[in-house]
Design goal:
248 residues, alpha/beta, 12% strand
Amino acid sequence: MATTKEEDVQMMLVCKTHLGTRNVDYRMKRYVFRRTVDGIHIIHLGKTWEKLMVAARMIVAIENPNDIIVASQRPYGSRAVLKFSQYTGANPLAGRWTPGTLTNQITQKYLEPRLLIVTDPRTDNQALKEASYASIPVIALCDTDSPLENVDVAIPANNKGKESIALLYWLLAREVQYLRGTLPRSQAWDVMVDSFFWRDPEELMAQEEMDQGYGDNWGAQQQPQQSWEGGAGGDNWADTTAAAGAGD
């Protein structure tokens, strides 16, 4: 059976999607549930879920998925953006945003999308500004302190944590597939949320070394060194020096 709103909200709680910041933008106050003793603003996850559904309907309304750009300058969102694009057919722009992508027609990377999705309105400010010049609607993941200029649909959520960003893109990709009919609502999506998580390159290298069993290989390499330190080499060296002394 397809997951319900309550199950999705539970997943958001696990991924800390509800944790905002100490600051709150006056336009984001409507999405704040309450404020903790520490001064952290808690986001209303019911409104987050509703906005995800609205965003999914906007994405589905565009006939050609390639006309959708998903951008993330924030490293934590890069893998999620690529995975989201893989499952929805959107055009990913992870990493640095090239200025003029939406406004400068003479560049090779010039694009004319019908929808822009950004991970953070503050870090993706250049993309938002260009989208406003080209009259392109924008969906953005907005934290409590995010500016909402040039944002058409704000999804209130924690856009700082890698788990939170990954889960939001996963939920969005799943809902898009449900609405398009490529995935029946009667069955759960078999793709794990973990595949959307950003992974640290150093962490990956350490994991690969563990998988390949470098520890065992290192022990095997040490054994020839021990046999090389045996008595035979020492005796030969002593004989050579003795013979050299006798010759003198």
